Amino acid sequence: MAILLKLQPAPSLLLIQRAKRLGDPWSGDMAFPGGRQEPQDRDHLTTARRELKEETGLQVTTPPLWKLNTLWTKSHSSLRPMTIHPFVFAAPFNTKTAMNSGPGSTMLQLSDEATAAVWVPLSVFASANREYFDWQTRLGSFHMPCYYFQHHKIWGLTLRMIESLIKAGHLARLQSVQELRWTSDC
């Protein structure tokens, strides 16, 4: 997973809405750009960068700010476990994609795997904004935590990664830094 973080005008994360596809368990969900490791990928970091470029058109070549803890989950297509390796990058901006128009201003080139992309301010994830919904599965109904931004529901593994980022304390340390070096790779 590639988690893009921008600090201006407010700390925000880039989320994409997955395209709706028959048989895709994440169909229509809000997510970070990411996907399966390919044989040509040297490592998980290479996978995260490649998937970010494929799904959004954005390229990051700078080192990640952080690597979050690996998440384990069940693969939807088999009983095998699946690991998720989230990397947090400073959002790459140049003058054409400047952040002067608010949270949704960055110009992206979305692949057919995504139908939308939004910059979600971290303030959305204040505990007072937490809601719940009933998730229907073959095993029954589960009361799941979520947050809403505009008309997008953010939940599941994406929410687990966001909560991991917030709980790790990285963002508090970033806010004490006077200046971050943002690149213009895109």
Describe the protein in words.
It is built from 3 helices and 11 strands; from the N terminus they run βββαββββββββαα. By secondary structure, the chain is of the alpha+beta class. The protein has a single domain (2-175), classed as Nucleoside Triphosphate Pyrophosphohydrolase. Strands 1, 2, 3, 4, 7 and 8 form a 6-stranded mixed β-sheet that branches. A 3-stranded antiparallel β-sheet has the order 9-10-11. The chain is globular and about 45 Å long. The model is unreliable at 94-105 and 177-186 (pLDDT under 50).
What does this entry show, briefly?
The chain is α+β, with helices and mostly antiparallel strands. It contains three helices and eleven strands.
| CATH homologous superfamily heading | Nucleoside Triphosphate Pyrophosphohydrolase
Q: What is the number of independent domains?
A: 1
| Main sheet attributes: strand count, strand direction, barrel closure | 6 strands, mixed
CATH topology, which one?
Answer: Nucleoside Triphosphate Pyrophosphohydrolase
| Intertermini distance | 18 Å
Order of helices and strands: EEEHEEEEEEEEHH
Q: What is the approximate shape?
A: globular
Low-pLDDT stretches are: 94-105, 177-186
Strand content: 25-35%
CATH architecture: Alpha-Beta Complex
- The top-level CATH class is Alpha Beta
Count up the helices. 3
Structural class: alpha+beta
Q: Give average pLDDT, whole number.
A: 83
Query: How helical, in percent, are the residues?
Result: 10-25%
The beta-strand count equals 11
